[in-house]
Amino acid sequence: MHIHIVAGGPSNMIPDLTKYHNEDVYWIGVDRGLLYLLEQGIKPIKGIGDFDSVTETEMEWMNTTYKEFMLSPAEKDETDLELALNWAIEQKPSKIIVFGATGGRLDHALSNIQLLLKGSHHKLEIEIIDIQNSVKLVEPGFHLLTKNNGYKYVSFLPFSHEVKGITITGVKYPLTNVDIKWGTTLCVSNEIIEESGTFSFKQGIVIMVKSKDLME
């Protein structure tokens, strides 16, 4: 079972959600993200949030279309997306994908990326996807890189203070056993040139970002 969460980020940053919908996927709408789902004809198993980003008219329409709301207070210690992630993790899915978590306010985008650490704590893959990028945390070990879904570029950013022993193959700028720290851009904007490659490292946590060139 996969759980897909749609947050309330700008709609122009969210891909066509119907392409990610199948019988093995359960959806959660977070705040305005619930509206996005219902507009695309997808009914989630849960709607979570204080819904302060929807108008009264939109809220009335959602109330006539959908009933599984989990209202959160406007003043709280967690964001609506964190509440949704906590609920989703309790359902023990095999993977979580988050949409609508980028664009708009930078503080929200940065905190949403930090929420990926919850996946590391629970040994669960959590991925953020928008119209141009895929973002996830990667832990030490050996990983495959594949040239698919239109992602031309791949970047590796240190999420821990230091990442040791990075080796990358199948890319335009290969590396062998290199250490990187916070503040370095050495592993930004590489290109996957082979049908498949590899990425490995020995210690630390890495943010892996795959990006499409939307100008092509």
From TrEMBL:
It holds the Pfam family TPK_B1_binding. It comes from the Bacteria. Gene3D superfamilies: Thiamin pyrophosphokinase, catalytic domain. The keyword Heme does not apply. SUPFAM superfamilies: Thiamin pyrophosphokinase, catalytic domain (SSF63999), Thiamin pyrophosphokinase, substrate-binding domain (SSF63862). Residues 141-207 form the Thiamin pyrophosphokinase thiamin-binding domain. It comes from Bacillus suaedaesalsae. GO terms for molecular function: thiamine diphosphokinase activity. Its EC number is 2.7.6.2. Keywords: ATP-binding, Kinase, Nucleotide-binding, Transferase. SMART domains: TPK_B1_binding. This is Thiamine diphosphokinase. The keyword Nucleus does not apply. InterPro entries: Thi_PPkinase, Thiamin_PyroPKinase_B1-bd, TPK, TPK_B1-bd_sf, TPK_catalytic, TPK_catalytic_sf.
